[in-house]
# Entry
Amino acid sequence: MATDLIGAETYPKIDAIVQEKGAEPDSLIEILHAVQEEVGYLPQPVQEYVADKLRLPAGTVEGVVSFYSFFTTVPRGRHIIKVCQGTACYVRGGKRVLEAVEKHCGCGVGETSEDMRFSLDVVRCIGACGLAPVMTIGDDIY
# Structure
């Protein structure tokens, strides 16, 4: 097994997830979600491990991870902040909100703060246009 930043104790947890969800290729997305929840992200060695467990080519798993925006291959902060830049939010000051969040967190869009507290993303719509401008921190809308 390749050496990576993920500890050896993580792989038995991945095994348990695969067993719980069913070691079938049809379970890939569900398994990747659960593994990302456990590990925090999906680095290449973890993707290869999941591929091996599901008897899939590593490229298939990598393709799914790179296609869906909710998967990440880099470590993320404890608090995921998403600032809406959709039309309603942008017109009502979303850009200023984004600038303030960048300054406060010390990281730019698509980045994670050095202390691993925050990761910052831009989204095009949160579905709360009547409250614009909005952002989320975790599952909470502000």
Notes: The mean pLDDT is 93. The longest strand covers residues 79-84. The first helix runs from residue 10 to 21.
